[in-house]
Amino acid sequence: MSKSDDLFRRAERVMPGGVNSPVRAFRAVGGRPVFIESGEGPRLRDVDGNTYIDYIGSWGPLIAGHRLPAVTNALSRILQEVGTAFGAPTAQEVHLVELICELIPSVEKVRLVNSGTEATMSAIRLARGFTGRDKIVKFDGCYHGHGDSLLVRAGSGVATLGLPDSPGVPSALAELTLVIPFNDSAALEDLFGRVGSEIACVIIEPVAGNMGCVPPEPGYLALLRDLTSQSGTVLIFDEVMTGFRVSLGGAQELFEIRPDLTTMGKIIGGGLPVGAYGGRADIMDQIAPLGPVYQAGTLSGNPLAVVAGRTVLEMLRAENPYDRLEQLGERLERGIQEMAVEKGVPVHVNRVGSMLTMFFIECPVTNFAVAKFCDTDHFCKFHQRMLQNGVYWPPSQFEAGFVSVAHTERDIDHTIEAIGKSL
Ligand code: PMP
């Protein structure tokens, strides 16, 4: 038995499904996860000594790859000279937040939290408190973490496991979450025509990543901005995945839309647990201790976590690697398409910069209803062979993969070869 299988057997006895987050159990692709021993740059080594080119990157945070020396050095310094947490203000958190405000102009004030889930939950509470309204809107197949109000027709692991809405979410709460299809302008106009003045907020992944990568259609986000402005509804861009990923200023910079609030996570923690929500100062000032909307956190803004994020953001600001990420992403996309044609397999690639999904489907994927038509059996076999061929690819048709600054052209070409063999 491999060491991974042995560890998984032990883990299953003491952890539900053997994991601490569902999708990493690889249930949609055969149910045999590999246990990771270490990572370096774009590569992972598992506990059995196999190496992989990594396209998960810890599900998005590792835009600079594993163990970026600047990050490990900064962390060592904090550990040796500062400490891990004080539950008191420190200079490190001010540095990170100033940087976020500089890079994302719509974000005038920020509250740091510890995960993307916390960021979105808190942003929704704030929007409800600010507007005095209860209803919220999300999009079918978008995932915003596992907060009660947001676990309705969610993407990511919920979609991967084919779960209906989660038991445990009170129906009285779920009923306040209105769900419409992504990229459907008519549905949006119809909803706002009927109940716009009752909607506290709309939360959207401006580039969906949790039904697989699905970009917004031209004009869609602008329409959303117009309708929310007209009805006094708070527009929340959930940039947990897209922030600092699709461009330095996130999807809002790329599509030139200014949301009222933005939720962040992943890259802003540089691989450590950090989330954040921020935006218009008049809205943010409703949070305690300035305002009545309560939200707090024992470890929020701890120096260890925020220094990792700050180091990565400073690297991104100094090096602006987004052209390079675009080139690498484009090389991978082209390679996949050529291989798919050569092997006669219907495949459609959606990509925005370094965020990409290879859908086993013939037509373009514009929303979750279309994504669900993908050949998930084929994807499952493909994924198993990719692992055998040394590539750690997202283990679900409904997830995005990520290219990092650490990948080289050679890594991409090896990956394309592996894709050819796996197809
Ligand atoms: N929002 C989006 C867009 C996400 O992709 C995720 C996680 N994949 C979350 C929120 C939740 O973040 P976390 O897993 O850190 O709670």
3D architecture notes:
With 423 residues, the protein is an alpha/beta fold. It has two domains: 3-63 and 321-422, Aspartate Aminotransferase, domain 1, CATH 3.90.1150.10; 69-319, Type I PLP-dependent aspartate aminotransferase-like (Major domain) (Aspartate Aminotransferase, domain 2, 3-Layer(aba) Sandwich), CATH 3.40.640.10. Helix content is 39%, strand content 14%. The chain is built from 15 helices and 14 strands. The chain has helices at residues 3-14, 69-81, 91-103, 116-131, 157-160, 171-174, 185-195, 220-230, 250-254, 281-284, 303-319, 322-343, 368-371, 376-388, 409-422; strands at residues 36-40, 43-46, 51-54, 109-113, 135-139, 177-180, 199-204, 234-238, 261-264, 275-279, 348-352, 355-359, 391-392, 401-402. The protein has a seven-stranded mixed beta sheet with strand order 4-10-9-8-7-5-6, sandwiched between helices. A four-stranded mixed beta sheet has the order 1-2-3-13. Helix 9 links the parallel strand 8 (234-238) and strand 9. Helix 2 (69-81) runs antiparallel to helix 11, helix 3 (91-103) runs parallel beside helix 11 (303-319) and helix 12 packs parallel to helix 15 (409-422). The model has no long low-confidence stretch (mean pLDDT 97). The structure holds 4'-deoxy-4'-aminopyridoxal-5'-phosphate (PMP). 4'-deoxy-4'-aminopyridoxal-5'-phosphate binds next to helix 4. Residues 59, 115-117, 120, 143-145, 156, 205, 209-210, 238, 240-241, 265, 275 line the site of 4'-deoxy-4'-aminopyridoxal-5'-phosphate (PMP).
